[in-house]
Design brief:
- The model has no long low-confidence stretch (mean pLDDT about 80).
- This protein has helices spanning about 1-25, 50-75.
- With about 80 residues, the protein is mainly α.
Length: about 80
């Protein structure tokens, strides 16, 4: 009797997952893009202060790597 219960549970779970997958495939396509660029003037790249922080982090990491490299050479 327990074996039939497990088979029923597995079949139910599989059918639910298959139903979810077929539900996702029936979505309508996205609307077409509007004509022209979405903002003006055309290179619409929002570059904020985050680039400066990324460059600063890269410089600090490079300095740390060089320091660690020189320190390991001195220790040898």
């Amino acid at each position: 009797m327990k074996r039939n219960t497990y088979y029923f549970l597995i079949a139910t779970i599989l059918l639910v997952f298959i139903g979810i997958q077929t539900g996702h495939t029936q979505e309508p396509p996205p609307p077409p893009p509007p004509d022209g660029p979405p903002c003006w003037p055309p290179p619409c790249v929002p570059v904020n202060g985050g680039v400066i922080y990324a460059i600063g982090a890269a410089v600090l990491f490079g300095a740390y790597a060089l320091y660690k490299s020189f320190r390991s050479r001195i220790a040898e």
